[in-house]
Amino acid sequence: MESKNLADFPRPVHHRIPNFKGAPRAAEHFPHLQAFQMARTIKVNPDAPQKNARFFVLESKKTLLVPTPRLRTGLFNKIIPPLGATKDILRKCATSQGVKNYSTPVGLDSRVLVDLVVVGSVAVSEKGWRIGKGEGYADLEYAMMVSMGAVNQGTPVVTIVHDCQVVDIPEVLLEDHDLTVDYILTPTRVIVTGCERPKPMGIMWSKISWEMLEKIPVLRNLRSQEKQAGKDVTLQDEHWRPPESRSQQQVLLSPVRRSLDVVRLEKGPIQDKDVPANSEAPLGTSVYVGNLPRETRVSELKRALRELGATPTRLTWQGPQGRAFLHYPDPALAQQAIACLQGLHLGGNTVRVALARQQR
């Protein structure tokens, strides 16, 4: 997709659900599906190529649920547009920033029923076999929805991809926890897969590690519920236990610690001594963004921040030095932004992200 210039922002598309030129055209098939027309509540993934699908759900006055990125703060959010919202406002609600601004969390006890599921894909076959970006979040989201009674084997699953992403996938690559799809929408085709391979029947706890359990609080809650119900919730590495001396704060921040080597958890804020100091904001609320190519424009960075749901209240641009500082209202939002920006590429460079040091 990169070599043939089929990819669209954010680029490069490595290590993410790839956005592509023609994604809006592919999404135009979505409202014409009978499954869409019959559905009242639709879950759509938060990635860029499915933005128009989210808009069509809102425009049709159906209930839109969007998973929280990497399931950090829950399973999904319900998007609630303002009263009398115009099409332009609905389009904003469908963006990652809009999802953040116009959403309310959906709890495990909400008894929500999802009629249609939309997932992103890196590759998919006409048989309905799917490959994601390799982290298993879409599969886990679906399994969690099964566990809470939100979906069942008859709930249709749709993916929206470029034609070049429809490829032959060997069945040997599939495992029991892998999610399959029933409809594939491309800019030129609607493929009804007729897939008969069973979808996940719930969370396979033997595939879940303690590390993943630490990263996803809602997963811990589900495990506790299923354990009380008498189900086998033995983990992949059941005999290992996280050190008892860790505080709850350390457990919650552990995904950030593992994903960014320069960020360390200490008694004070997470900082990197090699990161330039910043004196424009209270301690722990500014994020350093470095390794920016000289030709990068501030508008490119702002666009990436909007797409990733990490828009700051203020941005200090230091383009000639290849860096910028993002200012947030409180340390928690700064930490969340660091997690969201991991792996971001701009102009061919992998951006470096860390909490800015406070200048004395």
UniProtKB/TrEMBL annotation:
Compositional bias segments (type: Basic and acidic residues): 227-244
InterPro entries: FTHF_cligase (IPR002698), FTHF_cligase-like_sf (IPR024185), MTHFSD_RRM (IPR034359), NagB/RpiA_transferase-like (IPR037171), Nucleotide-bd_a/b_plait_sf (IPR012677), RBD_domain_sf (IPR035979), RRM_dom (IPR000504)
Signal sequence extent: none
Domain RRM: 285-358
Pfam families (alphabetical): 5-FTHF_cyc-lig, RRM_1
Region (Disordered): 227-249
Membrane-spanning parts: none
Keywords associated with the record: RNA-binding
Domain of life assignment: Eukaryota
Protein name: Methenyltetrahydrofolate synthase domain-containing protein
